[in-house]
Design goal:
single chain, alpha/beta, eight-stranded parallel sheet, 11 strands, about 30% helix, binds 6-O-phosphono-beta-D-fructofuranose, EC 3.5.99.6, identical protein binding, glucosamine-6-phosphate deaminase activity, Glucosamine-6-phosphate deaminase, Glc/Gal-6P_isomerase
């Protein structure tokens, strides 16, 4: 794992965007795995700016998102389809036919999971996967006690996740209870991974991901076994990392 500590949320996004942009520049037909949530927004803004100012070309890029709420249609403003459109896709020159998210409206979620995995495989697998992290150390919507061998599947959201995501809804009761998410195995098969986190409320989860035991109770801890992960965090999210880890990290001011 490489740890990059930045002094602001914007710089976290900048560091992440540089890695994504480098990937797309060197391999124009890259397959990107993408995340939603508030964390990657500054990265998407930066990538959109790089597209606009220097013409970073997304026309050959394919994207697969991590997850979608079950029962959310793509035109629902709370859906992750909608989020991606508003925060990223409409600002770049990606082709709509190269954009994939799990279908939260599918009748058979087992078949939908299999379909999604086949699509990823048909595109040659994910070159670079972007991840946020939940306060309970989830990645995608893989909640604690996850099965490390799981591929894309239906998940029941933890109460902690429902509470955390209720800020995007009128109330916690409106947050869907189920989602369809890439599994840990899907994520671990990506060639490169970047994990982003900002804010004090992510410090415990970052600690577990970087130096806790590798355990299904902290799903992100499995990333310690991945061959190429960059963890990009602001000072607040890095605040519980021990001096030994901070000593080998890169700090960007
Ligand atoms: O970035 P946020 O809003 O804190 O969300 C944390 C994580 O939870 C999710 O929303 C659930 O998958 C992820 O997309 C995100 O990485």
């Amino acid at each position: 794992m490489r740890i990059i500590i930045t002094d602001s949320y914007e710089k976290m996004g900048l560091e992440a965007a540089n890695i994504v942009a480098g990937q797309v520049y060197l391999k124009p037909d890259s397959v990107l795995g993408l995340a939603t949530g508030s964390t990657p927004v500054s990265m998407y803004q930066r990538l959109a700016a790089v597209h606009k100012t220097v013409g970073l070309d997304f026309s050959e890029v394919t994207t697969f998102n991590l997850d979608e709420y079950i029962g959310m249609s793509p035109d629902n403003p709370q859906s992750y389809h909608y989020f991606m459109q508003e925060n990223f896709f409409k600002h770049i020159n990606i082709r709509p036919e190269n954009v994939y998210l799990p279908n939260g409206m599918a009748e058979d979620m087992i078949a939908e999971g299999e379909r999604y995995e086949k699509l990823i495989a048909a595109k040659g697998g994910i070159d670079l996967q972007v991840l946020g992290i939940g306060q309970n150390a989830h990645i995608g919507f893989n909640e604690p006690d996850v099965k490390f061998a799981a591929t894309t599947h239906k998940v029941e959201l933890d109460e902690e996740t429902i509470q955390a995501n209720s800020r995007f809804f009128a109330s916690a009761s409106e947050v869907p209870r189920y989602a369809i998410s890439m599994g840990i195995k899907t994520i671990m098969m990506a060639e490169h991974v970047i994990l982003l986190a900002n804010g004090k409320n992510k410090a415990k989860a970052v600690y577990k991901a970087v130096c806790g035991d590798v355990t299904p109770e902290a799903p992100a801890s499995i990333l310690q076994l991945h061959r190429d992960v960059a963890v990009i965090v602001d000072e607040a999210a890095a605040s519980l990392l021990p001096a030994s880890i901070r000593g080998v990290s890169v700090t960007r001011k």
